[in-house]
């Protein structure tokens, strides 16, 4: 905890919070090009994988199916939470 005291902004004020929010915004803005490049690199590798039938074995196909099921489960769970923890529908 002693090492991290240098990162604590004192006194805490509205101006300090605005400065930190601005720094966070520009830090995230600066990371967009790297994330953009990484996205296209991943997409290109996925395209190459889909082109070659030899690369698709049972392990790869089952992993892709498992990830698809997991994404659907997270979506369905979010829907239930969004409806107020009801499975059948919204409260009217």
TrEMBL record:
Q: Which InterPro entries match?
A: ATP_synth_F0_gsu_mt (IPR006808)
Q: What is an example of a GO molecular function annotated in this UniProt entry?
A: proton transmembrane transporter activity
Q: What name does UniProt use for this protein? A: Uncharacterized protein
Organism, scientific name: Gossypium aridum
In terms of domain of life, where is this protein from? Eukaryota
- Keyword Transport assigned: yes
**GO biological process terms on file:** proton motive force-driven ATP synthesis
Where in or outside the cell it occurs: the entry states:
Mitochondrion membrane
In the UniProt record, which is one GO cellular component term? Answer: proton-transporting ATP synthase complex
Q: What is an example of a Pfam family matching this protein?
A: ATP-synt_G
Family assignment? Belongs to the ATPase g subunit family.
């Amino acid at each position: 905890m002693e090492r991290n005291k240098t990162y604590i902004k004192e006194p805490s004020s509205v101006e300090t919070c605005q400065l930190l929010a601005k720094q966070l915004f520009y830090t995230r803005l600066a990371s967009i090009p790297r994330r953009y490049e990484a996205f296209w690199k991943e997409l290109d590798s996925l395209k190459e994988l889909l082109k070659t039938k030899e690369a698709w074995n049972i392990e790869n196909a089952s992993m892709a199916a498992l990830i698809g099921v997991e994404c659907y489960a997270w979506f369905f769970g979010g829907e239930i939470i969004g409806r107020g923890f009801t499975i059948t529908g919204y409260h009217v």
